[in-house]
Amino acid sequence: MVFEIRNKVALITGGAKGLGYNFAKALLSKGLKGVTLVDINENDGILAEKELNEIYGNDKALFVKCDITNYAEFEEAFQRTIKKFHQLDILANNAGVGFDGIWRKEIDVNIIGTINGFILGMDHYLNKYKSTNEGVIIATSSTAGLGGYAPWPVYSATKFAITGMVKSWGCQFHYQRTGVRVVEVCPCAIATDLLNTDAFSLSPLYEGSMETIKNEVEQVQKPEHVAGEMVKMVEDAPNGSIWVVEAGEPAFEFSLPKREIFKKE
Ligand SMILES: NC(=O)c1ccc[n+]([C@@H]2O[C@H](COP(=O)([O-])OP(=O)(O)OC[C@H]3O[C@@H](n4cnc5c(N)ncnc54)[C@H](O)[C@@H]3O)[C@@H](O)[C@H]2O)c1
Ligand SMILES: CCCCC[C@H](O)/C=C/[C@H]1C=CC(=O)[C@@H]1CCCCCCC(=O)O
Predict the structure, then answer these.
(1) Of 59, 90, 168, 205, whose CB count within 10 A is highest?
(2) pTM score, two decimals?
(3) Residue 191 alpha carbon, nearest atom of ligand 1
(4) 67, 97, 141, best to mutate for ligand 1 pocket (most atoms within 8 Å of CB)
(5) How close is the Cα of 174 to the center of ligand 2, in Å?
(6) Which residues are known catalytic residues?
(7) Is the pLDDT score of 56 beyond 80?
(8) Distances (CA, A) of 39 to 50, 73, 131, 176
(9) What is the residue extent of each domain of the chain?
């Protein structure tokens, strides 16, 4: 059965701009009741809240300034969501940073921040405050989380970690105890500010590594496109499933093989 977006409430990390902001718009266009934009960037967050309330109607959007690596601060964002909207059905663990010139921060935000979101979402808020029998967590990884990536080994590792979270929290055991479905989106390059960084490489030794990937990342896609595909995943992607979105094309499902198939007879 398709999960109805209408009248649901979402919390989106990294919602002040880029993919998160576009995902908020895509959900609101489908009749979402309300959205909390959680972001460390106050200027863009306030602007985003104002813009969404102007387009979709007052009181649809709430911005909460928060660093997702801080569990207590992140929990406050959930509490403020419940206080304002009285329910929570969709969590997008979307905030992330790149690239490896800031690799310790990548680990903090992309791994610890995402784990905080899963614990708060699965075990404390979506399980209790979903308005129907099912809630959904969508986590933003990357195609760099499905295969090795020479230019940014640490970024890639943090995105592989998200795949581990989705495969684990996306097990039936957790669905049965919480009623929360878990899905992962793995986009290739998207035209957002993430790409405008001067923290590209871990060190000058990595110079030239971009040459190895030119073909794969040539077609930078629009955030609106990826956001639209994410809405479809929220509607009906199976629990624990992983979806690739690249080159502005429709999403396709990616599966990890069972290790038994590699066993020599
Ligand atoms: N842009 C791409 O090419 C691309 C490709 C694949 C995956 N992704 C992933 O998409 C997600 C969204 O990135 P984007 O491209 O929209 O980038 P973006 O920089 O436009 O947006 C990321 C948002 O996350 C917020 N953020 C960063 N650290 C935070 C923290 N500690 N707490 C709260 N918010 C924080 C930022 O302030 C920003 O608003 C990321 O997880 C990124 O890794 C991006
Ligand atoms: C000089 C050109 C620079 C281009 C940079 C490129 O746009 C970056 C894309 C990445 C940005 C964040 C990601 O997750 C994206 C990860 C893409 C991972 C691609 C890995 C290859 C693959 O898809 O298998």
Answers:
(1) 90
(2) 0.97
(3) 1
(4) 97
(5) 32
(6) 155
(7) yes
(8) 14, 11, 24, 31
(9) 9-246
Domain spanning 9-246 has what CATH number? 3.40.50.720
| Residue 37 · residue 31 · CB < 8 Å | no
Of the candidates 20, 4, 1, 230, the residue with the CA atom closest to the CA atom of residue 130 = 4
What is the atom index within ligand 1 of the atom nearest the CA of 21?
16
ipTM at complex level? 0.96
Q: Mutate which of 100, 112, 120, 192 to test ligand 1's pocket (most atoms within 8 Å of Cβ)?
A: 192
CA distances from 5 to 34, 90, 104, 113, 125 (A): 11, 9, 36, 25, 18
Rounded average pLDDT over 107-127: 98
pLDDT tens for residues 134-156? 999 999 999 999 999 889 999 99
Closest-approaching ligand to the CA atom of 230: 1
**187-244 tens-digit pLDDT:** 999 999 998 887 888 898 988 887 766 665 668 999 999 999 999 999 999 999 999 9
